[in-house]
Predict the structure.
Amino acid sequence: MEKTFLMIKPDGVQRQLIGKIVQRFEDKGFQLIGAKLIQITKEQAEYHYAEHKERPFFGELVQFITSGPVFAMVWQGHNVIQLSRTMMGKTNPLDAAPGTIRGDFAVQTGNNIIHGSDSPESAAREIAHFFKPEELLSYERSIQSWI
Ligand code: DAT
Ligand code: MG
């Protein structure tokens, strides 16, 4: 089953949105298989956002993502990578539709509440970066056949 890495950023944790955001992914039918509240290091942040290393906002981005605890999660489900990106909404909250997480909770690109892997390759890389294999659980849900 497909897996993705989702992370509630420091602004989402500070604004006490963890519960509401987790609820959305549970309601959709996805299965949570790993989660932890962590403070990420500068080195971890630079690796996580390496694709943006040359962008002018890189320093600010690393500073922001390390500014407080984040809630790191691994979710599983059919097409979970693409569907969770749709649920998150566009990167810039000006473009994020109402009903999406960024559309409902964010007003500026810097503080856009949530990160989600954008491809199978980035999901595999990000899951391995933040979780040890034994931190990911495999368990049956009786509702699975209805989703
Ligand atoms: P996403 O988080 O939607 O995958 P991304 O990978 O392009 O977006 O960028 C990673 C993060 O970097 C994004 O969530 C917020 C920040 N960011 C992106 N573009 C930015 C910009 N033009 N100015 C400031 N921050 C930006
Ligand atoms: Mg991205």
